[in-house]
Structures are given as structure tokens and as C-alpha cells.
Amino acid sequence: MSITLENETDFDINENLLEKFNLIAKDFTNKDIEVLLTDNEKIRQINKEYRNIDKETDVISFPFEDIPHSPLGSIVISIQKAKEEAKRLNHSVEDEITLLFIHALLHLLGFDHEKDRGEMREKEKELIDKYNLPKSLIIRSES
User: Is the pLDDT of residue 94 over 60?
Assistant: First the structure.
């Protein structure tokens, strides 16, 4: 299992963040995961092209077909959105990016907070507690 990270921004990714991604992911999968860090304009284009939603968002996940040796999927994160939320909520950008990664990873694994009965929220809460992170995306949207 490995995380392939492509950074299209000037945000400096430190090794601790990538290591945290690996620790979180290996609890759930042995498949590779692709992560793209980008800006609002690029994530807006991706959102419009693949989801027919013409606006920027903070994170999008694309699960791959479950065949042997294929990656689990791709995660696209807007660094601009992550910076905005981190500032607004008074926590680190790295924590916000980690929350976005967790949220997207759970979607790649088949969780869907819009359809389930709280299972995704509970799994996010477990990970937030384990890694001492601020409130999750689902909890924020419920407030």
C-alpha cells in the first residue's frame, strides 16, 4: 500500500502529513491511493466534468473498480479550501487536509453519509479521536 501524492500547489507537504495518510490508510486497505492537491479552479473543473456540479468544493473522491492490483481510488483536495476552513475554524492546515483525506478515504471504502445510518460519522469520529483531530466534515455540516 502506498500513497501517490501529486501537488499542483505551492503548499509545502511535510513528511509527517504523508506518513499520517499512510498510517490511516493502512488500517483499512492494502491498495494504493492517489492524492491530488490542487486549487479551487481545478477542483471546480473536475467537479463540473465528473459530477456535473459547477462549483468548487473541498474534496472529491473517485473509487476505482475493485480488481486485483488496482488502486483503491483517487482523492482530490483543494488546498485553498483547506486553508480557508483551517483559518475559519482555528486549526492547522495539516489537520484540515487530514480530515479531508479521512472523509474521502471512507467514501473510497464505500461509506456514504448521505445514505447510511451514521456509520460513516462513527468511523470518522473513531479516526478523529485516534489522531487527535478537530471536528469532522460530517459533524460540522450537522451543526
Answer: yes
